[in-house]
């Protein structure tokens, strides 16, 4: 192949990269406001990631046609968070007035939290159901419902939720409830170890299902899904995140300082956005730790395996190509544009 042929091939690949690369993620003004049980009709402004933290934990829940699965997931999530706080209050009462427990008490006050349900343009009443549940069942819980102006994809929705969260730590979790929410605690402990309890510390803790490869839950999945999982890991070795055994588990915890260094630089709106985030963390030496979580398959998935497989190949190529050419990466994030 001579120089001209090589140059022609490069230009063709570059043109293909430009065509496949997603358009800028645009934030609509209406998406920077939320409704809640305390303000169901008048939207209120969301906290921005650049602002000071307002709660200990933000739970970011991307939702797309989740009328059936979201109520169960919310019940499990809130039950665990409230249970932890009851235990912490009881522990504080028992230790009150004793020198031996005062230090432990000061470290374990009730955990303040908010739940952000971000609807990705559903037309099945998902946002209405979310608000109704918040009003009727969880009126005392800080639940914020955000509606995207149009469907953009899971990556765009998670990015938006992170950019407009108030937590010192920020958890992304799928609306299907497939990951046991109680496994937040080992993720939380791992984050404390990474940051040393310093609010300025950077860290990412990734929920991992890799230990379940031979478990009944994974074996019972379709042959195509399992083949997709194995193929993905092989490709991730080539992309540069093969050190992470499970990049796609929808259960990840970010410290606020780490989130500030990651999500403004995220470009991918589709379901492979996790890989881009992990590459951004690797490039900035942000510590990433995997923690085993329990997981089970939940019916009602919107994933089309064939379409997802083709999209996976395209997106991994887009990530790798853009980062190699310096179009994406640290310092290459698009300023959050609000229209």
From TrEMBL:
Name used for this protein in its record: dolichyl-phosphate beta-glucosyltransferase
GO cellular component, one term: endoplasmic reticulum membrane
Signal peptide per UniProt: 1-27
EC numbers, comma separated: 2.4.1.117
Chain segments carrying region Disordered: 89-110
GO molecular function annotation: dolichyl-phosphate beta-glucosyltransferase activity
Subcellular location: Endoplasmic reticulum membrane
Span of domain Glycosyltransferase 2-like: 58-263
Protein's membrane topology: Single-pass membrane protein
Chloroplast recorded as keyword: no
Keyword Transferase: yes
Enzyme class: transferase
Principal location: endoplasmic reticulum
Species, as recorded: Rhodocollybia butyracea
This protein's UniProt keywords: Endoplasmic reticulum, Glycosyltransferase, Membrane, Signal, Signal-anchor, Transferase, Transmembrane, Transmembrane helix
Matching InterPro entries: DPG_synthase, Glyco_trans_2-like, Nucleotide-diphossugar_trans
Catalytic activity: a di-trans,poly-cis-dolichyl phosphate + UDP-alpha-D-glucose = a di-trans,poly-cis-dolichyl beta-D-glucosyl phosphate + UDP
Family: Belongs to the glycosyltransferase 2 family.
GO biological process terms held by the UniProt record: protein N-linked glycosylation
Pathway: Protein modification; protein glycosylation
């Amino acid at each position: 192949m001579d120089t001209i042929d090589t140059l022609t091939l490069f230009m063709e690949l570059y043109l293909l990269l430009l065509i496949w690369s997603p358009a800028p993620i645009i934030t609509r003004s209406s998406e920077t406001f939320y409704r809640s049980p305390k303000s169901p009709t008048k939207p209120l402004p969301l906290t921005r990631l650049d602002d000071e933290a307002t709660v200990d934990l933000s739970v970011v829940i991307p939702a797309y046609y989740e009328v059936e699965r979201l109520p169960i997931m919310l019940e499990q999530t809130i039950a665990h968070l409230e249970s932890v706080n009851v235990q912490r209050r009881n522990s504080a009462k028992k230790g009150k007035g004793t020198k031996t427990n005062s230090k432990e008490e000061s470290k374990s006050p009730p955990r303040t939290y908010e739940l952000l349900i971000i609807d990705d343009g559903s037309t099945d009443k998902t946002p209405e159901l979310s608000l109704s549940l918040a009003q009727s069942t969880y009126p005392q819980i800080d639940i914020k419902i955000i509606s995207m102006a149009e469907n953009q994809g899971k990556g765009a929705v998670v990015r938006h939720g992170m950019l407009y969260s108030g937590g010192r730590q920020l958890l992304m979790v799928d609306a299907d409830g497939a990951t046991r929410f109680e496994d937040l605690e080992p993720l939380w402990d791992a984050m404390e170890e990474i940051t040393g309890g310093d609010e300025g510390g950077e860290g990412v803790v990734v929920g991992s299902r890799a230990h379940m490869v031979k478990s009944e839950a994974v074996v019972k999945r379709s042959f195509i899904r399992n083949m997709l999982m194995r193929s993905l890991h092989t490709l991730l070795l080539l992309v540069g995140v093969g050190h992470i055994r499970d990049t796609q588990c929808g259960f990840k915890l970010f410290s606020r300082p780490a989130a500030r260094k990651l999500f403004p630089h995220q470009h991918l709106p589709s379901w492979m956005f996790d890989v881009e985030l992990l590459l951004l963390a690797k490039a900035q030496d942000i510590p990433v730790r995997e923690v085993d979580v329990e997981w089970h398959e939940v019916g009602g998935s919107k994933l089309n395996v064939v379409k997802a497989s083709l999209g996976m190949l395209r997106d991994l190529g887009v990530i790798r190509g853009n980062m190699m050419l310096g179009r994406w990466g640290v310092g290459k994030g698009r300023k959050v544009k609000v229209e």
